[in-house]
Amino acid sequence: MDRPMKSITARADGKFYEIMIGKEIFSSACITLKMLSYDRLAVIVSAKVMQLHGEIIRQVLSEYNNYDIFEMQDSEENKNYRYVEEFLNGMLKKGYSRKSAIAAIGGGVVGDFAGFIASIYMRGLPVIQIPTTLLAMVDSSIGGKTAVNISSGKNIAGVFHQPDLVISDVSFLQTLPENEIKNGLSEVLKHGIIGEKNLFRILYENDLKSVKELNNLKDIVYFSALFKSGIVEKDAKESGLRAILNFGHTAGHAIESMLEYRGISHGEAVAIGLKIELKISRQQGLLSEEEYNTINELIRRYKLIYNNYRLNADDIIKHMKFDKKNYNGKLKFVLIKKINEPVYNQEVDNCLIKDAVDSVLNS
Ligand SMILES: NC(=O)c1ccc[n+]([C@@H]2O[C@H](COP(=O)([O-])OP(=O)(O)OC[C@H]3O[C@@H](n4cnc5c(N)ncnc54)[C@H](O)[C@@H]3O)[C@@H](O)[C@H]2O)c1
User: Fold this and answer.
1) Ligand 1 — pocket residues by CB below 6 A?
2) Which candidate among 65, 96, 114, 205 keeps its CA 20 to 30 Å from the CA of 122?
3) Rounded to whole angstroms, what are the CA distances from 292 to 257, 271, 289, 297, 362?
């Protein structure tokens, strides 16, 4: 029988924490949160999620003795360093101590902001991640990367700060707009390509309609969390293996930064980035034509790129180089030898990159 809740014990930076995954588990999983017995809990919640799920959130928290709800407008502009001091002042005024904790209920924006606050308030408080978007469940809530934006760049102020607990209740996803599901699926496909066979199988056997059934989403979140936490356990600070998680992101980040993080979602930028980096893998003679076509068919089937963009290959390459300026201007990629066999730190000739980007933009 399908178990209502699956659990993963993750380990990173010498610390163990639980990732709980299931349908309608938010209230029961919060019993675990209660047992962690913090003196006070600052709950940072997406204003949108509060609007949609406020009743259950208030009901669950009402059993918790000492807490405050801080609603956050979760746009990328608000995940900003300029709000950090204001927030820290607010916590101090309310009497938060070193025995307190922070909980984040929302997508990656809320999770990253709350994680960053937790990492610096009084030299670090525990953080509990309660993701409510697919992207946050399969990616940003796991691995301990926290960051906020500064005026000259995205995610520039940040630290590694592993969570104490992650509660992924896929029931939250019932209210998530379809495009946000697709954004999460880009990261799921990435995991399926670089190492988690089960994810590739689920995507291959389903379509956009069937994949949204809660049982499928539960499996997707479970296998993604298992895969990502396994990589992070081996390399928490991204000094080696964790780099494979950047597949599709060298080009993806360049496209996002070119469009100033406004005109495109992270998921769509990653999907275009996947296409470019798959093309480079193909051109380098690594990936077979058959596997290349199969993956591209999945990108089409799940409509992971759902807008038309006027992109220019030279601009994308310029932004890739800018992103990587600390590596002497040399561009390194994660490439794919075959499905589930990535290689990282691959230097690629500029002409080849240009050919690949041109070919993807003109396809
Ligand atoms: N820390 C990491 O490792 C990591 C990894 C990937 C991305 N990120 C960061 O994550 C952020 C993107 O996260 P995201 O894609 O979750 O975006 P998001 O947090 O902006 O959420 C997307 C939208 O969904 C809404 N929403 C959230 N939950 C909902 C629900 N259950 N029902 C209806 N609407 C809901 C939000 O209000 C928002 O409008 C970026 O800032 C990115 O930098 C961090």
Assistant:
1) 46, 48-49, 52, 74, 76, 79, 106-110, 112, 132-133, 135-136, 139-140, 143, 145, 155, 172, 175-176, 180, 183, 266
2) 65
3) 27, 14, 5, 9, 17
